[in-house]
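Entry 0007
Protein: RWD domain-containing protein
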Amino acid sequence: MAANEDQEMELEALRSIYEGDGCFRELSPVSFQYRIGENGDPKAFLIEVSWPETYPQTAPVISMDAFFNNTISSAIKRSILDKLMVEVEANLGTAMTYTLFEYAKDNKELFMENQPVNTVVS
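Output (structure tokens):
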């Protein structure tokens, strides 16, 4: 099956799974964001997953560069991205966006355990 057909099937599945989920955003048919944690949670973070043309045979691009993450230390971001890349390697060749988002949700506390909680007063 061509990568594009795989992507179309995964896109339909993501839309179905996350319909009505305020944490999920489809930025484009090949780029998605998921907020891990509730609004107002000082340890919440945002993951962006983008599919290159040859995804899922090649790794998706995972980013934590969103403004939402500006209070998270670069070391914590790097650690989260490294852990997500281990999952990517384990799932290469299969639809993995849902798996990556769920893995991040399941491991949020572990990922953020060394992140200091900064209370920002506006």
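Curator remark: The chain has one domain: 3-112. The first helix runs from residue 3 to 17.
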